[in-house]
Every structure is written in C-alpha cells, then in structure tokens.
C-alpha cells in the first residue's frame, strides 16, 4: 500500500511524500467446542523477539470507525473477526470476553503467530471448553482484592486475567489438570493444583495473606538517588517466588507480598543502568542497589557446525553466578542470521539459548557499558525436558 502525505516546506511550497506500508489484512474465526465465540475483543501485538504480557488495557474494544482496525477486532455472531497488522512478522494474540476475562490466544502449538508478507492472511483460534472462575479476597477481612493477576496453566493451554473491583475472575481453558497462580501487590503469591472437568470450576474462593517485605534505596554510581524505576526480586530457592515494585523519586522502594527466603533484588532500566544485590533476606529494610551502565549485548547462536540458528530463544540466565530478573531486553529470538540484541547488566553474564530441544550456554564479561558480543553453540543432542532455570 502506498500512502501520500503533503508536507509543507519552509519557503511555503509543498511536496508530496510517498510512504510505503506493508499492511496485512488478518481474518479468521474464533470457536469454542465447534461453536462460534461472539463478542470477543481480539488483539495482536508485535512479539519483538521477547515475551509480551497482555493486560486488560491491551485488549480494549477497537474504534467504531468502518473497516478493519489496526491490531484489534471484535468477533461477530459467526465468530469471525478482521484486523490489520502494520507489517509482516511475529505477533502474539490475546482476547477479552465481554465480562472482562482476559487470556492469550494461540493457533496450533506455537506461542506466537507468523504473519507472512502477503495482502491477506487467515488465522483461526479455538478456545478451551472449560472455565475456571471465582473470587480473590483478603484472608483476614474477607474484602475483595481487585487487579489480582490470575493464571491457569494446563498441559495444552494457558489462560490469564485480572480480578475485577469485586475480586471476581474468569479464565477459559481446556479440561484437565493444571496450576492456578494468583499474584497481587502486597500479598503473598498463591499457587494450587486444580483438576478441571468438562463443566469447569466456577466458585473458587482464593484467600490471600499479607506477605513479608523488602525495602531499600536505589542510587546511581555517584551515590545520588535514582527514582522512577522498576525493582524486581527473585527467590534464590523457589523459582516461582518473586516480587516487584516501583522506585520512588527519592530512590526508595518497598516490595510487599514476599514469602520466606533469600532473594536477588535488581533494579534499573536500559537508560539508567542496572544494579542488583544477591542474598537479601526477606524482611530486610536497608537494601542498597547501585546502578551501573548497561551494555548492548550482541548474541549469535550457532549449531555444532558453526551455522547460524534462526528462531532460537536466548536469555540472560545468570549474572555473577546468580539467577536474577532484570527489566528490559533480557530475552529474545534470533533472526535469520542467528543474531539478536539484548541489554545486559554489569558483571559476568551467563547466556542460555534453546532451539528445537537443543540448548547451549556461554558467558561474557560486561563492564562500563561497553558493547560486547557472545556466541552460543547449541548441543547436537536434544535436551531432555525444559532447560534448567
């Protein structure tokens, strides 16, 4: 598609600029147990080489202007939808029901969608046939907890959503056994195994307890407060236990809702730099995180013969020998040349790459914000099960 736009130059004359776009019309149907699923807001978002988390805002109802809308559409009575993607590439899809239930959409077994460079493309989605729903409340007072993040992961599907102002949530999934996980700021995470039958589970009551906390301050390399950043905590003994929060303008932070144990606490951004502290006991209130410049990290993934591996997933697994979470581009997918760009904190960075069951690791030292490169060689033998975390 060619779009023409008039641009006025300084001397009062105008010129016409032609902008070449590569929009693709995406159409398809959403069904549940073979029947059309009407009234769902379907949204696409660029995968951008990493993982996209959808929230309720991401699936807002599209504009009522005529014709297909960019990245968003609503299913009709027959379950059909249409939308525009702005260019070919890799996308993730999500949907929201009229009652606010929110979850990712998948087509087949791939966690993302490949939209080819064609004028139109069809993607059909099949929803799970069961429903997991209930209410999230405080254990002591019984008051509802709004905006709790709820997810249910089964063998062949994963759904997620946010609780509403009354603490209620609803997730659609395939029947079978899976794990229900609930996270809310200020509360200890709740996780339980559920067996979901064909009729679903609609009256769950999740009572959450106030969690423990970690507090401290974030400063730059000169010791000045560094605020308006994200701070994360990851348990050093339980990979499912984590915390998050915001750093205030004066550099202070407070993360609540943690369980017992030791954590690695990290903070920062690509622009401000990153810092971390390992071995932080829950309940600590004087944690000090010092930021250091971030390094642009170019990663090349190859096979045992040195040939580039496209569509391999690579992530920063450890920093200084410690598993940690960092805001920003710490995970991605290689292009056709087997290359991706990450942003790394200062220290000895261990990379983990995976493709088609094969895995590989490599380490590289990042210092002073200088750009660095690393090559990861994948093993010949397929890995047994998921890679170590």
Task: Describe the structure using short key phrases.
4 domains; 54% strand; Immunoglobulin-like; 389 residues; mainly beta; 35 strands
**Domains, number:** 4
CATH architecture of the largest domain: Sandwich
Helix content: under 10%
CATH C-level of the largest domain: Mainly Beta
**Secondary-structure class:** mainly beta
Assembly type: single chain
Distance between the amino and carboxyl termini: 45 Å
Q: What fraction of residues sit in β-strands?
A: over 45%
Q: Count the DSSP helices.
A: 0
Rg, Cα atoms, Å:
23 Å
Describe what you observe in this structure.
The chain is mainly β and 389 residues long. The protein has four domains: 104 residues, Immunoglobulins (Immunoglobulin-like, Sandwich); 79 residues, Carboxypeptidase-like, regulatory domain (Immunoglobulin-like); 79 residues, Immunoglobulin-like (Sandwich); 83 residues, Carboxypeptidase-like, regulatory domain (Immunoglobulin-like), CATH 2.60.40.1120. The protein is built from no helices and 35 strands. The strands form nine sheets. Strands 3, 4, 6, 8, 12 and 13 form a six-stranded mixed β-sheet that branches. Strand 25 and strand 26 form a beta hairpin. It is globular, with a radius of gyration of 23 Å.
